[in-house]
Design brief:
Elements (H helix, E strand, L loop, with lengths): L9 E4 L6 E9 L3 H8 L11 E7 L2 E11 L10 E8 L1 H13 L3 E2 L4 H8 L5 H12 L3 H11 L2 H25 L9 H19 L2 H9 L1 E6 L6 H17 L10 E6 L1 E7 L12 H13 L4 E7 L6 H9 L5 E6 L12 E2 L8 H13 L12 H22 L4 H19 L5 H9 L6
Helix pairs in contact: 3-4, 4-5, 6-7, 6-14, 7-13, 10-11, 13-14
The structure holds guanosine-5'-diphosphate.
The site of guanosine-5'-diphosphate has 16 residues, from helix 9.
Length: 444
């Protein structure tokens, strides 16, 4: 759809299609109230009050529903919005939606409600993008941090940086435009300001890796000799998360791979399933097997040994293989030992001792920071904009060091502002916008 398309009235189910307690149909646009008046038995609406009544098709009762009216501009999209809460059956929702479409609404495209919210300035682009993140979040931490984006944390950070850049630009421009009255800013001041801005951008980019891991997940392999407790650890980590995973309909379990919510989504690979059954499970074998199967793919390796046996020569050989890999050495069966090394992570897959600590260690190692300390997330599009802004500021900084003409410096400074405007959506093309909302679902 073209960005300049008139804002006709759109409708879509806002809840997943399927059997459920409640189904919600959302209508947004000028005709929203007009449409509901034609098909609802109780159409006298007041702001912030819901109405109970029947959806009627030529007088025939279709379903008893609750209708929530939102008067423009106080709605999600900024337009007149009607939400119909009906019974959550596929065909009830379909019948009501068809009726709404028959009376003048058009089926909404993916993300069109949120796109309107953005175009009507109810939110900036970083907030609109966070809506998709919240819906698709694979872990509760990611949902939480995306919610911070929705509340505008990233937007404010970007606006602060933009304001700082703008302040310097104003000084440069004043010096250029009114050379008699305004002195051009000192080069020292420019260098200092640009450097400060670059570190502000770096600060925002710092969480980029974690943001990406939140979306893509991390692969973690458990390795170690037979009988050290790899499967038990796998299950212990799983049970931390089990309640939530098993409740999701359609989740299938694989013996070897399991995706857990450990703050970040973690695909745990239990290599116990690929171990050799014979007694000659030699280091070479372990090395070849593991390096091929899971070490290469893994973002992190959990190396387990038996604390009651200590580190064997074989263990030490395997550890050498992990030299260039992010890994955590774990002494399992801590319940069997009384003496402990201060610098070793002791756990007991049996009693659960140390499992929570391991979980924190794991997420911190994979992300570089503890995911729950993140204040906001960025996506690749936003990261690209930030990198563009940074590169321009870097250019401006170098130019300032060389005492270049301030006219020239201002070109880079302006490009940095444009890159940030692209991030917030102040300056955005149709294509980019459509691309962003393509990732949404219908009804959002
Ligand atoms: P894997 O071959 O490395 O996958 O090891 P398993 O998970 O199958 O465990 C081997 C044996 O060690 C089983 O009998 C487990 O019950 C036992 N085991 C695993 N973890 C612990 C632990 O933390 N403490 C004790 N005492 N036994 C454990």
């Amino acid at each position: 759809m073209n960005i300049l398309d008139e804002f006709d009235t759109i409708a879509a189910p806002a809840t997943p299609i399927g059997a459920g307690g409640v189904g919600v149909i959302r209508i947004s646009g000028e005709k929203a109230f007009n449409i509901i008046e034609q098909i609802f038995s109780n159409p006298k609406f007041e702001p912030r009050k819901f109405n109970l009544g029947w959806i009627l098709d030529n007088g025939k009762k279709i379903d008893e529903v609750i209708v929530l009216p939102f008067f423009a501009p106080n709605s999600y999209t900024g337009e007149n919005v009607i939400e119909i809460q009906c019974h959550g059956g596929i065909n009830v929702v379909k019948n009501i939606l068809n009726l709404v479409l028959k009376h003048g609404a058009r089926m909404a495209e993916k993300g069109e409600f949120t796109k309107r919210a953005f175009l009507n300035k109810r939110m900036d682009l970083s907030q609109a993008e966070s809506v998709a993140d919240i819906i698709h979040a694979k872990t509760s931490d990611f949902a939480n941090v995306s919610m911070k984006n929705l509340s505008g944390v990233l937007r404010e950070k970007i606006n602060d940086i933009r304001n700082d850049i703008f302040e310097v630009l104003s000084k440069i421009t004043a010096g250029i435009d009114f050379p008699e009255d305004v002195k051009e800013p000192e080069y020292d001041y420019l260098q200092e300001s640009f450097q400060k801005i670059i570190s502000q951008i770096d600060e925002v980019l710092k969480g980029a890796e974690t943001s990406n891991i939140f979306r893509q997940g991390a692969s973690v392999a458990i390795i170690g000799k037979p009988n050290v407790g790899k499967s038990s650890l796998f299950n212990a980590l799983l049970s931390l998360d089990r309640a939530i995973v098993t409740d999701i309909a359609g989740t299938t379990r694989d013996v070897l791979r399991e995706t857990l919510d450990l703050g970040i989504p973690v695909t745990l690979v239990d290599t116990a399933g690929i171990r050799e059954d014979d007694e000659v499970s030699k280091v070479e074998q372990i090395g070849i097997e593991y390096s091929k199967q899971s070490l290469d793919e893994a973002d992190l390796v959990l190396f387990v040994y038996d604390a009651s046996q200590g580190l064997s020569e074989e263990d030490k050989e395997v550890l050498k293989l992990l030299k260039n890999k992010k890994h955590i050495v774990i002494a399992n069966k801590a319940d069997l030992v009384s003496e402990r090394n201060a610098d070793t992570l002791y756990i007991s897959a049996l009693t659960g001792e140390g499992i929570a600590e391991l979980k924190t260690d794991l997420t911190t190692k994979v992300c570089g920071i503890e995911p729950e300390t993140l204040d906001f997330v960025t996506n690749t599009r936003q990261q690209e904009c930030l990198k563009k802004a940074r590169a321009s500021m870097e250019q401006a900084y170098l130019a300032a060091r060389l005492n270049e003409l301030q006219d020239l410096i201002s070109i880079d400074v302006k490009s940095a502002i444009l890159a940030l405007d692209e991030l917030t959506g102040e300056l955005i093309t149709d294509d980019i916008l459509n691309n962003i909302f393509e990732n949404f679902c219908i009804g959002k």
